[in-house]
Design brief:
Elements (H helix, E strand, L loop, with lengths): L1 H41 L1 H22 L4 H5 L8 E3 L9 E9 L2 E8 L3
Antiparallel strand pairs: 1-2, 2-3
Helix pairs in contact: 1-2
Amino acid sequence: MIKSNKGAILTVVIMVIVLLTLLAGYTLNFAYNQKRLTDRSSGAHLKAYYRAQAGVVDAQWRLRTDPGGVFAANGPAYNPPAYSLDIDGDGVNDVTVDIGATTAQGRLIESTGKDT
């Protein structure tokens, strides 16, 4: 009777070790996925998005105020060259903005923010 109890206890111990290993793997996987999600929502991608938004706002301001009369002087077909902006003042251009020519839908503004 002692031999059968030793075998049963060994089986239970092995099952507990397997369950604890599975639980540890699940916990590590969950923590890794949470970290990836947090990095995406608050990291470089979000910074690039807001920099691009700042470029769009700058382009809209240029179209509304027309500094130097560039758009009025050249007409609606004028397609100005793309330009870059330094948003945070560190001397490095953070955004590239391209204002397209006037079409039936209006002007297309493309703005790309850098994620550095």
